[in-house]
Amino acid sequence: MGVGRDLRRSHLVQPPAQSRTGPNYIIPAKVWSSWVQSWRLHHLSREPVPVLRHPPSEEVFPNIQPKFPLLQPEPIAPCPVVCFHLSGTVTEPGTATEPEMTYKVAISFDRCKITSVTCGCGNKDIFYCAHVVALSLYRIRKPDQVKLRLPISETLFQMNRDQLQKFVQYLITAHHTEVLPTAQKLADEILSSNSEINQVHGAPDPTAGASIDDENCWHLDEEQVREQVKLFLSQGGYYGSGKQLNSMFAKVREMLRMRDSNGARMLTLITEQFMADPRLSLWRQQGTGMTDKCRQLWDELGALWVCVVLNPHCKLEEKSCWLRQLRKWSDMDVCPLEDGNYGNELPNITNALTQSAGHSQGEEGARPRRTVFTRAIEGCDLHWQDSHLQRIISSDFYMSPSYQREGESLLFNSQGQPLWLEHVPTACARVDALRSHGYPKEALRLTVAIINTLRLQQQRQLEIYKHQKKELLQRGATTITNLEGWVGHPLNPVGCLFLTLTEACRLEEESCLEISDAGDAKPPVYQHVPVATGSPDSSESYLALALEVALVGMGQQRVMPEGLYAQDKVCRNEEQIIARLQELELDAALVQTLRKQCILLLEGGPFSGLGEVIHRESVPMHTFAKYLFSALLPHDADLAYKLALRAMRLPVLETTAPSGDVSHPHHLVSVVPSRYPRWFTLGHLESQQCELASTMLTAAKGDMLRLRTVLEAIQKNIHSSSLIFKLAQDAFKIATPADNSSDTTLLNVALELGLQVMRMTLSTLNWRRREMVRWLVTCATEVGVRALVSILQSWYTLFTPTEATSIVAATVMSHNTILRLSLDYPQREELASCARTLALQCAMKDPQNCALSALTLCEKDHIAFETAYQIVIDAASTGMTYSQLFTIARYMEHRGYPLRAFKLASLAMTHLNLAYNQDTHPAINDVLWACALSHSLGKNELAAIIPLVVKSVHCATVLSDILRRCTMTAPGLAGIPGRRNSGKLMSTDKAPLRQLLDATISAYINTTHSRLTHISPRHYGEFIEFLSKARETFLLAQDGHIQFAQFIDNLKQIYKGKKKLMMLVRERFG
Fold it and tell me: Where in the numbering of this chain does the SWIM-type domain appear (predicted)?
């Protein structure tokens, strides 16, 4: 459907009058034909054709992949032009899989604009299809081969009645199925004297073009725009949808640059669909924020509207219409807020920039509701009628007379160059509007004026700071003087000025526009373009100004904004600007600009984020400083390190020392401080701080003095143990290259950082602690034997007793470590001595967890081993569990100390309590092992342990198992030196087995009664088997059969109510 002049309501062509001199004069056919024959579409006025601005690629036609060369005329059939209506047939060649296709295309144009298109391909897209483009190109490139026709009304005027009747009847015959109903309806209305048609003089002619007073604009399928935006929004966070919407935004900017009135129309259609997005209501009801990708689309929407309303040549009626629409959208409850979640206290866009040193962050006034359209609404109040502004943007040579350059001036600096004293983001919005609406030269001129203003402000700020420096340094704190930061600002002032300046320096050669094989565009190539000013000796270039304004904006001290999205936007915008800065090749001129600005930033006081004193909640400069450090290092290493070390601070995590002493800040734990607003991006900021430190460490490799300075900065400013550990690992990796010798200085830095991590995490929970401990030992091993001795001797400040014995000392004493260090005998003995001392200290402090490790480490030293053993014995009665004691006892037996093992096993038995129903207890194997050990040692040891077993174990099956094992072999088979072994089996009727037998029978009786209390029928079979095992034990006694018979009779009497069970008992046992 055409947008603009509606073909169905085209202006009426009047019947020819007698005089051809009136307003309805019709040009004679021959004159008209010769006049129009050589016209081309792009010659109709000075405006170019927007659709031909790019090749027909996916970016311009996202849903069209042209399958034939558009610039070749062969596929285009002869196409007549009936005045302002072009039609033709476009043939699309066939392929191996698709047949040849032919499409009929019709184009209407009016005053250099294509006002409507129709194509038989049925393409549904907001851009022209490939066939429309092909026909347009054919008309432009081959005007002589296109047959021109007069408007159809002129042709009809030349016919007589018979010709007219023949013309109508042939037309109806050729298209009777399509036009016959319409033809009959029109005939009826014409024959009716009272019809509406007969009330109007003349008839419409769609080929005659619009009236001079009618509006005309490029064809835009409004319905298709709505449908596509709605479709992309409904796809949510999918990658393709966001890319397509950004492509539509880029198209709007292109339309604005071409001064196409459809730009604002298309943006209005897009905004309507954004406001109709059902997710807005859902997010508002649930109190959840929209996704980052969606939020960025809304930001771009708001920025585009600012560009639209700041059009320097828009009509007042247009601006009023936009203002009403923007206010309507902004007043809707679902309209997203500018900063994501919070109200904002930022100044109005039309306010002048006021830098008050006495501004207090505590002064809170009303917090108006600011939506994404608020800045565009405020922009409607701006105008371009200021005479000073008009002179700035209209001439490169606008300067003040030389005799007026003395003293202060609000319009010019001391060199006579014009200034523009406006709120900086607002002034930059003007630049963006000029650039977006196709006024690049005017945008450049205003940009230079803004930079001159920033320079003057920077100079005055330095003068102010010189007078306040002593007081601020003593106080150790400052206030934020900027009401809003320029990085992360909704109007993106820094990025706007930078792009405006660099676009003027970009080399637009074919080699610069090539696409690499990977599909990525090659980085742009820039050249120095001198600044066009009235000063003949000016050596400045736009490229140097771009670098300067980026550094000034990025170095501005600014308070961290409120809300997650606003803080995330600051980080994202900073990274975007730095990515563009990295595209610049720093030659001598740019390096000079870089050095100058870095020095000014370091001396900038409270106005600079890199000044000596900053506000506690100032946005950190780590990412910015990392770029500056890398860029400066090859040219001025001292300045690079000075700047990067200054930027290492993170005041929000520090508590300042008392006034007058700002050199020793006290550290806090790395957590989000209890404050409002919260720093949601603190984790990201800390990681950037770590990246800056890592960059400096890498660069300082081999320079002991610089490494020491960087190390001190890390220890003072980084508060996260995980990040310090990462730095330590990075330093270790750099210091130990695979193909070269190790760097000792950097290795020592890595070790010191690792030691700090150990101290920081010693008393806190950290899931990477074991990894950290193992890494530290590896690092100390790489440093050398003195480092290992040091950590062994000071283990209590670095490790827990368990870590010190099981990881540190064990690794140090391992065979691999000895081989790695190539130690001689004295060095090995020194390490072993330190490890044994550590082991004994740990065993004293934590015998439960360190005793076994201590014994293992002290095996080769008799005195140390005896000391460790005595520590275990002393701790056995109080702090150690039976499991720990059994483990150490088994170790003693394995090492050939059976009597000591027996003693420890006896101590373990005193801590054990095995109930009657714990027949699967994990300690059963230990009990059986202890009894077997006692039995193998001899009758005396067995006699000593059986009372402990009887006291501790009440499980009948376990006791019977022990009893059975003791009766199978003779005691004393271990062959202890100095003892005689009788070789006789032990009787259950005599001590010590008599006591064990009685205990076992008693346990069976008690267990039987306990089981019968809550027995169910499905356990009857299991219970009968249990009684069978009990009978085996009873029979070991001399009168066992009598005792068992009495026991069974007793059961029958007590549990006679359980008839089925007792019947089973009688069947088995009588």
Answer: 103-140
